[in-house]
Design brief:
Order of helices and strands: HEHEHEHEHHHHEHEHHEHEH
Helix content: 40-55%
CATH topology of the largest domain: Rossmann fold
Oligomer: single chain
Strand content: 5-15%
Distance between the termini: 31 Å
Largest sheet: 4 strands, parallel
């Protein structure tokens, strides 16, 4: 599924703000700050959480998209973001057009000592696929390994600490794997619908069958109204109880998605909210487990 939501405005704003800082920042070449920590920037806070856990006390992390109450597609850059990127010797970005603003900021303040982890390139994904790759259980272990490699290149003397932190992070993901296996076994091939394919990779891992019309989801992602036929088909999934669950992007809403959510409630179809940005919880694992537990509870089991 393609996420075509427009990023042009945010990208140009990011570039313009970064260019303001460029003359003053062109001479940056120090790997660490005066406090001795590696300066890192993550496009999204779940990647920032990962960097902080793998880097530990040796890294200072700034996450740009970090508010779960704000639609990430309406992001507008700030001078603070531009400064953070200019100072950073490690940048982690999602790619797939999701955080294109970061490319502009990085390009406006180049550094020869900067390491960049682009998740799209790391996973070998072509443009146009579902960009919400952090919902794929296989993504974060690969990103963690790449981040550890980058940190070790920046601070070779701390390799042992980074490797220890990496293993701790990888071990922390085990409950997610366990919960996915449990739900998949208990509710095999469950038919579901969503307003947008934000959790699409997770639903694939769970073995669920997504019945939402592709045209409906594509239009919602693109910020346009779906065709009446697609709205009717999506509505029929709910009123005819063809699906057991509606997954609702609580972070990016519209009159159409609110209407579908209300219809699900009136039809007795459970609704589970999912978000694109990690809320104020302890970790990525806590966030994902809370959503998995909500899915399980909505289907009649779990917590």
């Amino acid at each position: 599924m393609i996420d075509n939501r427009p990023f042009a405005r945010a990208t140009w704003l990011a570039l313009g703000l970064a260019m303001v800082f460029l003359p003053a920042l062109s001479g940056c070449s120090t790997t660490v700050s005066s406090g001795g920590k590696i300066q890192a920037v993550a496009g999204e806070n779940f990647y920032g959480d990962l960097v902080a856990r793998v880097g530990g006390d040796l890294v200072s992390v700034n996450s740009i998209l970090n508010d779960p109450n704000v639609d990430p597609h309406t992001y507008e850059s700030s001078p603070q973001n531009a400064q953070a990127v200019a100072d950073a010797t490690l940048v982690v970005e999602n790619g797939l057009g999701y955080d294109a603003f970061l490319d502009s900021l990085v390009g406006a303040s180049p550094r020869s000592d900067r390491k960049t982890v682009n998740v799209q390139h790391l996973l070998g994904l072509a443009d146009g696929v579902n960009p919400h790759v952090w919902y794929d259980p296989g993504t974060m272990p690969k990103v963690a390994r790449a981040v550890a490699d980058a940190l070790e290149a920046l601070a070779p003397a701390s390799k042992s600490a980074f490797e220890t932190n990496l293993q701790t992070y990888l071990d922390s993901l085990a409950p997610l794997t366990t919960k996915i296996v449990e739900i998949k076994a208990r509710y095999p091939a469950t038919p579901v619908a969503y307003t947008e394919p934000v959790p699409g990779y997770l639903l694939d891992a769970l073995g669920f069958r997504v019945l939402t019309p592709e045209g409906f989801a594509r239009s919602i992602e693109g910020g346009t109204d779906p065709a009446p036929a697609d709205v009717a088909a999506q509505s029929d999934l709910l009123t005819s109880h063809k699906v057991k669950l509606l997954l609702y992007n609580s972070q990016a809403t519209s009159p159409v998605t609110e209407s579908i959510k209300s219809l699900a409630g009136r039809s007795g179809v459970p609704v589970v909210g999912v978000s694109e940005t990690m809320p104020a919880v302890k970790s990525f694992v806590d966030w994902q487990l809370s959503q998995l537990n909500a899915i399980e509870a909505a289907l009649g089991g779990g917590q």
